[in-house]
Design a protein that fits this description.
This protein is an alpha/beta fold. It has helices at about 10-25, 40-50, 55-60, 80-85, 100-115, 130-140, 175-180, 185-200, 295-310, 315-335, and strands at about 5-10, 30-35, 50-55, 70, 90-95, 120, 145-155, 205-210, 225-230, 235-240, 250-255, 260-265, 275-280, 280-285, 340.
């Protein structure tokens, strides 16, 4: 029997990615959508074959056909919608970031635990076969001791860009309190953060950040650079930005016995190339670009997690760790100091 999905919010991302992915995924049925505007919701439902459009979260959560809600609302609403869904015994997938504060993220994880529902987050690179292989190579020791991990992800358009310009993003992205007090970090850097933690199997424990934001004059950054220390001893660097149209978005893992390069593969879509150079493995794999398939596989993984009673590929705890790094980045950039992250107690 197909898993019944509902989407909360009808913005650009659910329009172009989430709804098409649910419709493409195996054993998935788009049952309902929520929008504050009835006509907009009905139009969205008609375009994507959803059975019902609601203007009430409560009515959507009372729909017995809905098994999972995919929350794509403005970031500051993620926590309240997640807690409402959990209390209604609906499983929850949240678009990144999980929450705008660590405290809210902890409350979300606890609510889902209390009500015994799954909580996942939209970190699609955990579905990319090249990143999965990189994680496997690190775990089985093919690269030896990993000393340095680098991730960089950038975008932009040619020509001068005003600091406040957020091309292609919805208006609420210009409000620090609505997105989580960071811009390019939440738009791009969180993918790199989760990806490095996934590949290394380690958590970030210390961060030093320099950005062009996090000031009174410019609260939201366009470019961020970070030095990271991981729990297993690996040192990392992370660069993200929205004013770099010619940027090469790569992930590189350096070990004592080899390295892995994920060339042009840091963006959250299937693309790029896996290059492995080591004592025992030397290979190159190229991936045909597909902007939708990772989201589709993410939906299917969540369905399987429900059936197998396990965590989805990017769990609530995984996503909470990324929120903690983001908040550490903001604090470090504001104060000019290195920030040490405490172990999460959830």
């Amino acid at each position: 029997m197909a898993v019944g999905w509902a989407i909360i919010s009808t913005g650009n991302y659910p329009e172009n990615s989430v709804a098409p992915a649910i419709n493409q995924a195996q054993d998935s049925d788009l049952v309902a959508v929520y929008s504050r505007d009835q006509q907009r919701g009905e139009d969205f439902a008609q375009r994507h074959g959803a059975k019902t459009a609601y203007t009430s979260i409560e009515d959507l959560l009372n729909d017995s056909r809905v098994d999972v809600v995919y929350i794509t609302s403005p970031n500051h609403l993620h926590a309240s919608y997640t807690e409402m869904a959990a209390k209604a015994s609906k499983h929850v997938m949240v678009e990144k970031p999980l929450s705008v504060t660590v405290a809210e993220g902890i409350a979300m994880v606890q609510a889902c635990k209390t009500h015994r529902v799954k909580l996942g987050c939209g970190y699609q690179l955990r579905q990319h076969p090249g990143h999965i292989e990189a994680s496997r190579l690190v775990a089985n020791g093919t690269l030896g001791t990993v000393s340095l991990a680098q991730a960089q992800l950038g975008r932009g358009t040619r020509g001068e860009v005003k600091p406040e310009a957020r091309t292609g993003l919805q208006e609420w992205w210009s409000h620090p309190e609505m997105i989580g007090n960071a811009a390019t970090m939440i738009g791009q850097g969180v993918h790199c953060t989760d990806d490095l933690q996934f590949i290394l199997g380690q958590r970030v424990v210390e961060i030093a950040a320099i950005t062009d934001g996090q000031t009174v004059e410019q609260p939201l950054e366009n470019v961020a650079t970070m030095c990271l220390r991981f729990s297993g001893g690996t040192i990392g660097t992370l660069v993200c930005g929205s004013r770099m149209p010619e940027f090469q978005s790569d992930v590189i893992i350096y070990g004592s016995d080899g390295k892995v390069v994920l060339a042009d593969a840091a963006a959250p879509r299937l693309q790029g190339e896996l290059q492995v150079s080591s004592e025992t493995v030397n290979t190159t794999v190229t991936y045909e670009t597909d902007p939708l398939i990772l989201v589709t596989w993410q939906i299917e993984d969540f369905n399987q997690a429900m059936a197998e009673d396990r965590d989805p590929a990017a769990s609530g705890i995984d996503a909470l760790a990324v929120v903690q790094v983001t908040m550490g980045m903001v604090e470090s950039a504001k104060t000019g100091r290195t920030v040490k992250l405490e172990a999460l107690d959830v």
